[in-house]
Amino acid sequence: MKMYKVIAASAVLVLGAATGAFAQDKPTDPQIAHIAYTAGAIDIAAAKLALSKSTNKAVTDFARSMVGDHQAVNDQALALVHKLGVTPEDNPTSQALTKAAEAKRAELATLKGAAFDKAYVDNEVAFHKQVDQALETLLIPSAQNPELKGLLETGLKLFQGHEQHAEHVAAALK
Amino acid sequence: MTALAPDRRQFLLAGVGVLLAASPAKARDSIVRVTIENLAFTPAEIEVKVGDTIEWVNKDPFAHTATVKGGWEVMIPPGATATRKVQASDGVEYYCRFHPNMTGRIVIRR
Known about the structure:
In chain A, 84% of the residues lie in helices and 0% in strands. Chain A is mostly helical.
């Protein structure tokens, strides 16, 4: 849960700055592209860990879907930034996401069997919830380029679908 | 006037015959297409007859399914088309197992 507090704190900081006097502190399009790509890459890495550790079909099906979907959406994102001539820019939110994911990955790596499955799927529910919230309240409203905004909106529907899928898998594990 | 009655009856019978002859053609199985784009089934609700074929065309780069809870499932890979022949029990609501926020409905026309 600690990692989510870090992400939440970071999102709050960015959001706080955006809604305060310094409206120009809203994330820029190159930063938004970096945050979205980072979130996808984090989920792919977690799914690959799950595929190497889990033997539960519902869990591996979910993980395979995460690898395929996030790879596809990140490929779209890369194609878009290339087309727009935008270079994704690293930023404190991306860094906080990566740092939290590394800690979670180390924790998951020590688990096995049903304990791993539960921890992985619970984390997927929480992670997607967190990203959905950031997309809805911060990233989509801040995006300037309409094509980037459109891709983020598709990303939100995708992530909301993943959140529900993760919830179904979590319920089945109980 | 009464003399006309048999004629009229014949005419009506002939009419029924035409309808009967026409009905097999009218009931010919057709293909009903559902497009999947941007994580949505369009149209979300389709009306089909038993024997029709539902064709899901997946324009997304993501794998989807048409899944009936406790029932059948059709896998629809990215960029691919998948089909199902409509059965009598197919008046159902379905969803994508990978993205349960995607839902659709099949109504059977009698």
